[in-house]
Design a protein that fits this description.
This protein is of the alpha/beta class. 34% of the residues lie in helices and 15% in strands.
Length: 331
């Protein structure tokens, strides 16, 4: 009689499987023994050799339909999004974070979702120096739509301990003085003498929301100097009333995470633990921490990844609107 197929999640999550090297045996739970119709004494099964595989499970039809509906609703909500009070035509979102955290990949991912196919328009670095060394502003276009969507993602040089984006440059960007394609200099921030310096920026030139981007797997390994630098930037943002969020990337690379886990990512225990740890290091409120899985090496879109990207983008844009709503009338 053929054994029943067991979902990967049930096997790896609900089974305690350990190798008894001396006896060449494994311990399998009673439930799995019964399901697989295995013969075991005290749940111990002798083995000759053992090979482990990680299986990629498929979502059931009900969840697939639910994701498709949510995906469609999120896309429509973002297409219908408008900056608060029509104060600006496009809200500006600045991405900050350590070198290699996934800022440029997030821009590529957003572009891919709205385009309907994978795009690698923005070069992504894999070395310690990163790739982005210019200030870039990116408009996003929806598929089959010639008009850009009402938001702009602004990419910048990564933050480092003694290198990377100069903190003075952060404030020039926030206030709208920094032109697109400005070449950063880690040792010397932009000045008003720069030929393309915007001397009298309008509200449309300013940043309306800041997003700190971190790799969910490595934020705990950042040096105390870098952590202090980021905390100082946060304190200054709070002082000036600039709203900001955190975005943790590479959530799909957490150990043993499955596609089904990603459909309810904020209730997945390892992610909850990471959010708590991140809160402890940087002080962000848990409600201000978002998670995504960027498109890095894929060549096809994935509806679950799309859902995380669109959900995060929606929260970011709504936060930008809260900033615009709170502006003094004379602004």
């Amino acid at each position: 009689m053929a054994a029943r197929k067991v979902p990967a999640e049930l096997f790896w999550r609900k089974t305690f499987l350990s190798s008894l090297q001396d006896e060449k045996a494994v311990i399998v739970s009673s439930a799995i023994c019964k399901m697989l119709q295995l013969t075991a004494r005290n749940n111990v099964i002798p083995i000759q050799e053992c090979e482990a595989f990680r299986c990629e499970e498929l979502l059931d039809e009900r969840k697939t339909r639910g994701i498709a509906v949510l995906h469609s609703n999120l896309l429509q909500a973002l297409r219908d999004y408008k900056p608060y009070g029509d104060l600006v035509q496009q809200t500006r979102v600045l991405l900050l974070g350590p070198i290699g955290a996934g800022k440029s990949s997030f821009v590529n991912s957003v572009k891919s979702v709205f385009k309907g196919s994978i795009t690698h328009q923005i070069l992504v670095g894999c070395d310690e120096d990163g790739i982005s060394d210019k200030y870039r502003t990116y408009s996003i276009k929806a598929k089959d739509d010639s008009d850009p969507l009402p938001f702009i993602l602004c990419d910048s040089l990564g933050l480092g301990e003694n290198a990377g984006l100069h903190t003075d440059d952060v404030w020039h960007i926030l206030k709208g003085h920094t032109p697109d394609r400005y070449q950063f200099d880690s040792m010397k921030p932009i000045t008003s003498n720069h030929p393309n310096y915007t001397h009298d920026p309008l509200l449309k030139d300013r940043i309306h929301c800041v997003v700190f981007v971190f790799d969910i797997n490595s934020f705990e390994m950042h040096s105390s100097e870098l952590v202090a630098k980021i905390k100082k930037i946060r304190r200054d943002l709070i002082k000036h009333g600039i709203l900001h969020l955190a975005l943790l990337t590479h959530v799909d690379s957490l150990d043993l995470i499955t596609k089904e886990d990603m459909t309810d990512i904020y209730n997945y225990s390892p992610v909850k633990s990471k959010l708590e740890a991140f809160h402890g290091v940087f002080g962000f409120a848990l409600s201000d921490i978002l998670v995504v899985s960027n498109y890095v090496s894929e060549w096809q879109l994935d509806p679950v990844k799309d859902m995380l990207i669109l959900s995060a983008l929606k929260e970011i844009l709504y936060t930008a609107n809260e900033f615009l709503e709170d502006l003094p009338l004379n602004k």
